[in-house]
Amino acid sequence: MKELHSFGWYAARIAPLMPKKAFKPVPSRLWGGLAYLLIVIGGFLAISLFELHPLLSFLIAIVLGSSFAAMGFLGHEILHGTVVRKAWLRDLLGAIAFWPLSTGPALWRKWHNLTHHVHTQDEEKDPDAWPTFEKIAQKPFLKWVYKLPFSFRASIGFLSLAFQFTMHGLKMFRLYIKEFKPAKRPAVWTQLILPWATWIMLLFIIGPVKWFFAFLLPLLIANFIVMSYIATNHRLNPLTPVNDPLVNSLTVTVPKWVDVLHFNFSYHTEHHLFPGMSPKYYPLVKKHIKSMWPERYHEMPLTRALAALWKTPRVYFKQSDLVDPYAGKAFGSLGNGLDAANIKPRKINMENKH
Predict the structure, then answer these.
(1) For labeling, which of 80, 181, 258, 299 is most exposed (least CB within 10 Å)?
(2) Contact between residue 247 and residue 237 where contact means Cβ atoms under 8 Å apart
């Protein structure tokens, strides 16, 4: 593995090259959020008040799901403090943006800002890192799962993207709720319960069929869109003992119009260097990274990254290998022999590695 540097090491070298306005909040980003909020309200009203053809309801559900996802991307931006700086307003706007995904701002900042960003791809401390072979060898159920045919696991893994964000969010709530001070726990519970209460109340108001098109199907679509990015952020990269974003993170590329709709969420390495900077300026950060460390920077089209996820397993061995342990196959990670355009496994002996 290459010599590792902290995100601060890179940031200190790029920051002087950035315009001063890049380090200030950009409240104009909220106009995009307002547009999505109006689209969501309009979609809810259309499905709720009219007896629409199922095909039209399906098309509206796609728009709603895409809007849910985009609001989540903006919520992520807001809760990093890059849109507004006042804490109460940041949390209020973040809560509204994350309402469709039912994720509270206090939990998100604890899980994502304070833990994932600080300990990215640390096998013990990053709550989003995938397991090592040593971990699954200690858990009978996981050992059984990873003995299933790889093609079956890959298919289930991709189908699970449609509910993975929601399920992982609930897991993070169970993990972190006890770490909040007792006086703050009621607020964290409220931030979880209120969104779900909204969606359950909507079910009783409009009925199960309309609710399916107004909320459940859009939620599945939003999960899939959000997780298509999140799944490619780090899962092809190695685990690292030092939080080096140029080694443990991947930027994906999408058409420009998609970046506009998704608030530049594709610029993930840049985000890990400057989480407190508006994504509006990430293209400039990317330019500087590629100028200064072109051999270390990882980027690829989102479609290629997803295809690479399909073709590689999600178990780490010796931090830099992705292994299918009970089939005896290993794949390198990015920067460690993985060629996403030509993925080929090598045989390894996993016996006596427990």
Answers:
(1) 181
(2) yes
Question: Which pLDDT tens digit goes with each residue over 307-342?
Answer: 999 999 999 999 999 999 888 899 999 999 999 999
Q: Which residue is it, tokens 């790889």?
A: 150
Burial of residue 295, with CB atoms counted within 10 A of its CB: 0-12 exposed, 13-18 middle, 19 or more buried: exposed
Cβ-contact 195, 222 below 8 angstroms: no
Whole-structure pTM value: 0.95
- Work out whether strand 251-253 and strand 299-301 pair parallel, antiparallel, or are unpaired: parallel
- Within 10 A of 284 (CB to CB), how many other CB atoms are there? 16
DSSP state of 253: E
| Angle subtended at Cα 243 by Cα 242 and Cα 245, rounded to the nearest 5 degrees | 130
Burial 334-350 (b: 16+ CB within 10 A, else e): bbbebebeeeebeebeb
* Residue found by looking up tokens 């593995």 in the block: 1
Residue 1: pLDDT above 70? no
Lowest mean pLDDT among 21-25, 136-140, 242-246: 136-140
pLDDT in tens, 95-145: 999 999 999 999 999 999 999 999 999 999 999 999 999 888 888 888 888
Q: Are 83 and 93 in contact, with CB atoms under 8 Å apart?
A: yes
